[in-house]
Recover the amino acids of this structure.
């Protein structure tokens, strides 16, 4: 069984010397076939073991050329769809052929068939794809001498033609060269050179033409349509600028003969002539022109509509600034408009230079007082605007500078002054950021609360209204926090390393006993108690001071009291040592009267007279302490002391 989907087919007959009779229905329908509408027919519904045929009852003369165009639709079922359709030329009758693999064509003799086969019948040597071939005398076997050309795929784009789509089948016979050619969707598929009249139809040139189709165990809805298409064009030009006169040229096609035309020009006027007289619209606008035609089979075509724009004169317009300050880039912004039509051309002249397109290049013009810009536009309908011209004034931009004090200290007020370098365009107003307390003034004051770098910006507005390029100034504010260190004590002539912080530069006073009074970490060697004043400052000044007191004792020595009273009166509440001239301490321990160690620690807080938070009784106790002086000598002291309650 053969599977061939019939795709809907516009039938356009261009015959030479061949006409079709004017009858109500020039087609004879057989079997399962039926008429869908004026121009379209079903050959087989999607039902098993059906066959149908549609024949034109008027014979054609093969001594004259013909070209038939159809829309064919071979159905929507691919793998299980079948069997196909055949375009047939035969002189005998308008009856139906066989079902299934016969495609309704099998057994018709003499005949020529162009088969669109959608099923693989191995007994007929069918290929696996949907195929097209030229067959003779109702014989579908591709190894037979009656297989004149093919099989090849029906479509040049796909092996499947059962795609639910309409395809154009065009059949052309050249009576002079004896060549029969077939196209699918305007692509050549099969062709054969054969004298149809003498070698096939026994010198009888008059034959019927028609379609046959069949299904078997597999089915498809297989259909074809003859052409009746209204179409037109406008001549001699596509330009339609009002009051252009439009000439409409009929391009309608039909398999048979067109017997009537109907035009509607969209403005309330109509015509029934094939090619109506040139038409002039009363005013610009968008008009829908429609055309329908009547075929000799009594069918009206679908209405073909085209939108015709009778163009109006466009208005050229663009947006540019009235003035430009300094050397600033600008680009005209097109704002041209048209009521009816589409602007397609822009002709610019900018400072004497021509440009095209709706977006002209970016412009940068300086050294002159003004720039002229003109624009005209044209629509695709051929309407041209008047020229629009605008002038931009080029104004000088003021130049400014700041006279700053570069560095300041926290607590001080920074004073800045802005000035103009363009005497011909003096500044009428100044804008500062952060905002000035005296807006518009050239003098500026700034006093921050925290140190750091602050960006101060100023912009000047000239008397011509142009603003200068903003100028930035970075103001640095500094602060210090002098720290000389904690008060301490040293042994007589013991070197003491000082460490200052809180500034960038330092100065110690007095300089007595210091290795260098102008560095942050001098070495002090003293024989008596001394107070040093440290001054910390930055390169901008910003000075602060701090004092350190250094007591001097004879030593190196470890001083131990002989009694203490832990009664929380703030005086002598802890038993502790005082190390003078010691580089490090090794241990400090306390023992009770029975030799039990009750304290062991090097902290400055010492012993508070308790064990695990329990007050110890008054009486005698023993201590031992050890350290190393700044010369590396080990010192150990032992003794007794009294705890007083």
């Amino acid at each position: 069984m053969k599977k061939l989907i019939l795709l809907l087919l516009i039938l356009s007959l261009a015959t030479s010397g061949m006409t079709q009779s004017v009858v109500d229905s020039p087609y004879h329908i057989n079997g399962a076939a039926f008429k869908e509408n004026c121009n379209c027919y079903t050959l087989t519904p999607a039902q098993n073991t059906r066959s149908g045929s549609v024949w034109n009852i008027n014979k054609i003369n093969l001594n004259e050329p013909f070209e038939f165009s159809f829309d064919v639709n071979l159905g929507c079922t691919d793998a299980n769809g079948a069997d196909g359709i055949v375009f047939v030329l035969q002189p005998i009758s308008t009856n139906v052929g066989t079902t299934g693999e016969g495609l309704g064509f099998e057994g018709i003799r003499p005949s020529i068939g162009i088969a669109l086969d959608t099923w693989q019948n191995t007994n007929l040597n069918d290929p696996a794809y949907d195929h097209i071939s030229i067959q003779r005398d109702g014989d579908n076997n591709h190894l037979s001498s009656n297989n004149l050309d093919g099989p090849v795929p029906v479509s040049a784009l796909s092996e499947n033609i059962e795609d639910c789509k309409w395809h154009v089948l065009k059949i052309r016979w050249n009576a002079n060269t004896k060549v029969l050619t077939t196209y699918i969707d305007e692509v050549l598929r099969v062709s054969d050179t054969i004298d149809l009249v003498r070698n096939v139809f026994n010198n009888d040139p008059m034959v019927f033409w028609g379609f046959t189709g069949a299904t078997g165990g597999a089915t498809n809805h297989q259909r074809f349509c003859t052409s009746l298409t209204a179409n037109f064009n406008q001549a001699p030009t596509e330009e339609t600028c009002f009051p252009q006169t439009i000439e409409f040229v009929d391009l309608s096609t039909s398999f048979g003969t067109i017997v009537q035309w109907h035009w509607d020009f969209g403005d309330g006027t109509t015509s029934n002539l094939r090619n109506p007289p040139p038409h002039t619209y009363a005013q610009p606008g968008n008009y829908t022109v429609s055309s329908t035609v009547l075929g000799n089979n009594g069918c009206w075509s679908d209405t073909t509509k085209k939108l015709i724009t009778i163009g109006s004169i466009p208005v050229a317009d663009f947006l540019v600034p009235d003035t430009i300050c300094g050397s600033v880039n600008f680009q005209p912004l097109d704002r041209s408009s048209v009521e009816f039509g589409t602007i397609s051309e822009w002709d610019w002249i900018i400072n004497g230079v021509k440009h095209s397109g709706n977006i002209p290049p970016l412009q940068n013009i300086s050294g002159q007082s003004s720039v002229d810009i003109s624009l005209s536009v044209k629509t695709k309908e051929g309407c041209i605007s008047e020229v629009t011209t605008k002038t931009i004034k080029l104004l000088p931009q003021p130049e400014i500078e700041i006279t700053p004090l570069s560095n300041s200290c926290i607590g001080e007020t920074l004073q800045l002054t802005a000035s103009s370098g363009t005497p011909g365009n003096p500044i009428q107003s100044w804008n500062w950021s952060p905002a000035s307390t005296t807006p518009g003034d050239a003098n500026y004051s700034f006093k921050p609360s925290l140190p750091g770098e602050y960006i101060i910006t100023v912009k000047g507005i000239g008397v011509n209204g142009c603003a200068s390029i903003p100028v930035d100034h970075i103001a640095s504010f500094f602060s210090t926090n002098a720290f000389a260190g904690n008060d301490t004590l040293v042994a007589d002539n013991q070197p003491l390393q000082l460490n200052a912080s809180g500034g960038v530069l330092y100065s110690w006073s007095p300089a007595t006993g210091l290795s260098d009074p102008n560095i942050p970490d001098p070495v002090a060697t003293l024989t008596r108690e001394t107070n040093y004043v440290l001054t910390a400052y930055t390169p901008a000044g910003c000075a602060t001071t701090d004092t350190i007191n250094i007591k001097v004792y004879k030593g190196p020595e470890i001083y131990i009291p002989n009694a203490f009273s832990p009664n929380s009166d703030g005086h002598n509440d802890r038993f502790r040592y005082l190390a003078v001239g010691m580089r490090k301490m090794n241990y400090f321990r306390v023992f009770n009267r029975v030799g039990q160690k009750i304290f062991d620690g090097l902290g400055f807080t010492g012993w508070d007279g308790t064990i695990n938070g329990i007050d110890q009784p008054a009486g005698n106790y023993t201590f031992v302490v050890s350290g190393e002086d700044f010369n590396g000598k080990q010192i150990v002291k032992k003794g007794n002391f009294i705890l007083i309650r």
The longest helix spans residues 196-200. The CA atoms of residues 10 and 71 lie 3 Å apart.
